[in-house]
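Lecture notes, part 5. Sequence design as translation. It can be helpful to think of inverse folding as translation between two languages: the language of shapes and the language of residues. The source text, in structure tokens, appears below.
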């Protein structure tokens, strides 16, 4: 009998996620992957998986059953042993908006375009491209890797660092000052496509005269309303709204993990500083970066 994990109850959205699928944005396919890569890495490494192995990204309470073998299970990097046939519960997220459940061996759903994670906007990946529901059964890999303690804690109150630009000329003179000196809050309309922020209106200067261009995760688009949208893992690959700044890669997780209503403050850094901060971040979490 092959080892599996079965969904007994899902009290909120839950989907299969991994380290993402790179190299396909020219085909209109965003990288996807975990909303909070650091927490995915911590959960996986605690059960001996590679940091980017497929696991469960949970937005509510979850109850699961393991079948086929005993295995290590981790919730947010805290590992425990589950016997064959054992049931276990996963509480709703407490610290942030999401939590990750990894099972030894990883979830062996079919790989598509180099990744196993769900891309809901395209309805593929994970299990049939959808959120999981009661009765779903997910196959597990072989497991047996060395377990590693979780890395450094992720701060959900720290300033979020950005590199300014590239469309500074398309904004009013005080847009950068407002971004860096005033607080914002996370809107409840945020999702994996983008985090919407409420706060001071960031004035544009060109009234939508720019052309559409390539987009990346972390780009801060500003529509005519003046309320910024920070693009998430399932972002569109092209966009026409001007980009005032880009959240550095080292801070993707600490921003995306925040709940609606949480405060966000921004601080500008240079490109060289952003690169050095990413090197430090990878070292702190002892996990290799995405390709």
């Amino acid at each position: 009998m092959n080892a599996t994990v079965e969904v007994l109850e899902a009290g909120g959205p839950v989907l299969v996620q991994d380290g993402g699928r790179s190299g396909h944005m020219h085909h209109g396919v965003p990288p996807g992957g975990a909303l909070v890569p650091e927490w995915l890495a911590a959960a996986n490494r605690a059960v001996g998986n590679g940091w980017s192995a497929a696991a469960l990204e949970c937005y509510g309470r979850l109850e699961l059953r393991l079948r086929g073998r005993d295995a290590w299970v981790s919730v947010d990097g805290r590992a425990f042993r589950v016997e064959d046939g054992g049931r276990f519960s996963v509480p709703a997220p407490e610290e942030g908006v999401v939590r990750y459940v990894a099972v030894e061996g990883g979830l062996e759903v079919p790989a598509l375009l180099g990744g196993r994670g769900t891309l809901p906007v395209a309805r593929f990946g994970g299990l049939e491209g959808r959120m999981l529901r009661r009765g779903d059964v997910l196959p597990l890999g072989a497991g047996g890797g060395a377990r590693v303690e979780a890395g450094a804690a992720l701060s959900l109150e720290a300033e979020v660092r950005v590199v300014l630009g590239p469309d500074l000329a398309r904004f009013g003179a005080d847009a950068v000052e407002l971004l860096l000196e005033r607080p914002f809050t996370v809107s409840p309309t945020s999702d994996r496509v983008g985090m919407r922020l409420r706060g001071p209106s960031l004035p544009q200067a060109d009234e939508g005269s720019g052309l559409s261009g390539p987009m990346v995760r972390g780009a801060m688009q500003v529509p005519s309303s003046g309320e910024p949208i920070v693009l998430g893992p399932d972002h569109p690959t092209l966009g026409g709204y001007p980009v005032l700044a880009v959240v550095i890669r080292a801070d993707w997780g600490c921003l995306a993990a925040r709940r609606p209503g949480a405060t966000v403050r921004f601080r500008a850094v240079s490109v060289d500083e952003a690169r050095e901060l990413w090197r430090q971040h990878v070292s702190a979490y002892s996990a290799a970066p995405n390709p």
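The translated text above is only one of many valid answers, since several sequences can fold into similar shapes. DSSP finds four helices and 19 strands in the chain.
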